[in-house]
Amino acid sequence: MGYRVAVVGATGNVGREMLNILEEVNFPVDKIHAIASRKSIGMEVNFGDQIVRCEDVEQFDFSRVDLVLMSVSGTFSKEWSPKIAAAGPIVIDNSSAWRMDPDVPLIVPEVNPDDVEWASRRNIIANPNCSTAQLVVALKPLHDAARIRRVVVSTYQSVSGAGKEGMDELFDQTKNVFVLGATPPKTFPKQIAFNVIPFIGAFKDDGYTDEEQKMWNETHKILDPAIKLTVTCVRVPVMVGHSEAVNIEFETPLDEDEARDILRESPGILVIDKREPTGYMTPKEAQGEFPVFVSRIRNDPTVENGLNLWVVADNLRKGAALNAVQIAELLHARGLIRQKALA
After folding, report:
1. Residue 342 belongs to a domain
2. pLDDT at 236
3. Of the listed 54, 130, 143, 233, which one is catalytic?
């Protein structure tokens, strides 16, 4: 028998991907509910060959379901996730609201699956930031092999990370730039078409942004608090797919050939690394795919035990919806989803 599952925020980019991936991986769903805000009541979304009408979050009885996937704002999740969890279902939340709560596990299944065992503390599991998710998948097997001392990351983050509004803004500006001139920015602080913006989120007092802060805080919680990590997050005119240039310093020697072999054998990773003009992955090619792709693996001769990587993933999938569904699969495999008796 399958589970009764609700997807909250089902009309958004990530919510729709959650529905798609639940169907793609054949997650055992007996009944699916699409939940949204009042303005989206009655909207239709697809789940396999089913058409599902959205229900009102304020009227829905969450005690009727076993599992809830949340794709909403942090503010909304702060209010609703505890209410939903108290009604019985386990909540997997994609927002930033619960990631650093010490009683909420922050899970990337390829990296720290055992942390799922203490999800019962709040009945909530947090999904990491999209850029963090792909980074730690690539770092974990290398850290196990040679202990990472320090990481320097520059991200190249697609506009879908800012939601449908960000995608619409890039499309409109690109379309208009050669006609009437690019439309004024609304979602982003500066023009994104034919441009890059070295600023995502909000500035902190130290000059870093909260997006950058999320990456080191979450990496410390998921992987190892001893790793030194510095980040620059950049928005680029790409619709879907985040990329990262990653420089790593290890405690012990690890050369590029060893690293390549380790990564090839690691879960969730596909190595595409040929030293020819097309022998690497780009975000366009990663769109719609499940793995984290690693390319351009090479020694860094400027530091002792240094390595460079290029890491690419679909941010709507492994960076969000796929990781949430993989957490659900992990809960299922360990028997941690409490099914309610059918009324």
Report:
1. no
2. 98
3. 130
How large is the average pLDDT for residues 73-78?
94
242 given a catalytic annotation = yes
Q: Is 130 a catalytic residue?
A: yes
Is residue 30 a part of any domain in this protein? yes
Q: Are residues 121 and 139 located together in one domain of the fold?
A: no
The pLDDT tens digits of the residues spanning 277-293 come to 999 999 999 999 999 99
> Distance (Å, rounded) from C-alpha 13 to C-alpha 27?
20
Give me 45's structure tokens: 């979304």
**pLDDT, tens only, 194-240:** 999 999 999 999 999 999 999 999 999 999 999 999 999 999 999 99
pTM above 0.90, yes or no: yes
Q: Which domain holds residue 273?
A: 131-314
Task: Please indicate, yes or no, if residue 99 is contained in any of the structural domains.
Answer: yes
The catalytic position among 54, 143, 233, 242 is 242
Q: How many CB atoms lie within 10 A of CB 108?
A: 26
Q: Is 135:217 a contact under the CB 8 Å cutoff?
A: no
pLDDT value of residue 243: 98
DSSP structural state of residue 276: S
Do 122 and 135 lie in one domain? The reply is no
Domain with residue 43: its CATH number is 3.40.50.720
Q: Which three-class secondary structure string do you get for 253-265?
A: CCCHHHHHHHHHC
**How many domains does the chain divide into?**
2
E-strand stretches of 37-116:
44-47, 50-56, 67-70, 90-93
Three-state DSSP string of 185-245 = CCCCCCCCCCCCECCCCCECCCCCEHHHHHHHHHHHHHCCCCCEEEEEEEECCCCCCEEEE
